[in-house]
Design a protein that fits this description.
This protein is mainly alpha-helical. Helix content is 68%, strand content 0%. The protein contains five helices and no strands. The chain has helices at 10-32, 43-46, 59-118, 121-130, 148-156. The protein is rod-shaped and about 160 Å long. The chain starts with 9 loop residues before the first helix and ends with a helix.
Length: 157
């Protein structure tokens, strides 16, 4: 159909365009229905270089894998939480033990200082006087390495 200027009407253009597309659509529909293409070869023979499309896996097959991954992630998270808790508990115990050790060392130093004060010569002399011992300035007591017997021998000579 043409108008007065000699051009085709839009309806005529559309019908001509659909008539051009019809053989391709029929060929594709024929292949989908299992018919052989125009070349006379089957789909397996024609598409030797192209692999056949595999059917998509069902969603039910993905669900166990997703649950496995989520379960592993949750298990890892829980184990990290427990590990962190145990480490924090050990850190508190460690700090408590360090404090107790520091206190014990301080007490040990205080006891050592008291012992050093009590063993000073003047403190020992004061304790001896309190117990009734007097200083003996009249006699000279010689000290020898052999003890009492050597001192007797020395006086006899």
């Amino acid at each position: 159909m043409r108008d007065a200027a000699g051009r085709e009407t839009p309806a005529a253009e559309r019908s001509r365009a659909t008539s051009r597309r019809t053989p391709i659509v029929e060929r594709v529909r024929g292949q989908a229905a299992g018919k052989r293409p125009a070349g006379g070869r089957s789909r397996a023979e024609a598409g030797a270089g192209r692999p056949a499309a595999r059917p998509r896996p069902a969603r039910r097959q993905r669900a166990p894998f997703v649950l496995l991954v989520v379960g592993l992630l949750c298990g890892g998270l829980v184990s990290l939480l427990l590990l962190n808790t145990m480490l924090a508990q050990d850190a508190i115990t460690d700090a408590t033990l360090r404090q107790e050790i520091a206190e014990a060392r301080l007490q040990n130093e205080q006891i050592d200082q008291k012992y050093q004060l009590k063993t000073q010569p003047e403190n020992i002399a004061d304790l001896a006087e309190k117990q009734g011992y007097d200083r003996d300035w009249d006699e000279v007591n010689r000290l020898s390495s052999a003890g009492d017997q050597a001192s007797r021998v020395d006086t006899e000579r």
